[in-house]
Amino acid sequence: MRAWLTPKVSASSAWVTPVPAALYPANQRTACLADVVPAASRGLGFAVLQLLTTGGGAFGSLVVGVASDRFGSLLAGMYILVPPMIVGGLLTLRARTSFERDAREVMREAAGG
């Protein structure tokens, strides 16, 4: 496997999908969090990020499974994920507006001012 590929294993299947590391969302979320959370709160920030990521991964598979059983189609079960993905995308776009300002504030605090 090439160095730029990161294996991504889904809990709901036995498939292993090679995903370019630059596109792997967990790396980006972690880096962004480190940039905008002050050092004194960074541990709590990473804990909350891990809790939400793990919870979403665990319950997302359950929701898709229950919905696909109820509707009789895995495709219909996957459509259940579209609204949360849209909400997450909109929240991410909104967070982009303050990212640079928050990062500058954290750097200013770290510099002692």
Automatic annotation (TrEMBL):
Keywords assigned by UniProt, alphabetized: Membrane, Transmembrane, Transmembrane helix
Transmembrane region(s): 44-67, 73-93
Asked if Transmembrane helix is a keyword of the record, the answer is: yes
List the protein's name: MFS transporter
**Per the UniProt entry, what species is this protein from, by scientific name?**
Nonomuraea purpurea
